[in-house]
Amino acid sequence: MYVNKKVVFALLLWGLTAIALPLLAGSGEGPDYHRQSEKVNLALRRVAHLLMEEAGDTVTRIPPVAFTGDATWQVRLEHAFNYDRLPALLHQSFELHQINTGYDVAVLDCPSGELQLGYNYIDFVENGTVPCGGRDVQAGCYVIQVTLIEPHTSTNSFLFWWLLVGGSLLAGVVYLLLKRPFLPAAAAVAGESSQIPFGHSALAVHEQTLIAGAVRHSLTYREAKLLRLFATHPNQLLERDIILEQVWQDEGIMVGRSLDVFVSRLRKMLRDDPTVRLVSVHGVGYRLEII
Question: Is 192-290 assigned to CATH 1.10.10.10?
Fold first, then answer.
């Protein structure tokens, strides 16, 4: 039985780091959390700027974006704006700043804090429209509020960290020693094709690149992994649970809304190849159709 000692050492090192970080920092908000918050702040400031500019206001100072807790950010606009433009501008700004999580949007009345308009990002991603679209926003003061559905948060609970680390280490060691031999990375990918063709497209696996028609697209690790699953199962209906298990299982948590966002991105890239369609089957999953 072959046991990769480097992998075992890496697991132990990861566990010690996970324990040490909350103890040394004394806070549950790590660098990833603050970076995410900064991205949301910049995205909302961009949205406020564009909405004000389209309303003809190029001189009023953009107010600071306020973080209200519970993964919620707010930006205040002192006059009416075009609500129909909000979904596209916000989604575009989130993509620009690489914010890959789901979100809810609410438009509140400044004086009373009452909800005036709102939607969930899935409405826009899947349909291109949102509820209450086409309605006039009366003159007044409004707060645009965005709440992330999958916030990058952590916990100050020492017990939580011990349970997480202990369980992960135990599962990893048992898997390595009892389940099966752990093969070196070189052996694991031996014989794997460097490209997976489908339609008039191909996925360059190791380069994480999609060649759609005559256009090349660089993919993230998760995009490449998801596309590889579709490309190796052309014209097959893949259920959502199966896709999540195959693509997101290494994160230790599977989030359904992330799948919809990543599928939307792949669809945009695959538009360059008219022989390929990534279709959704409502309530079931997705299928990569080769025409």
Answer: yes
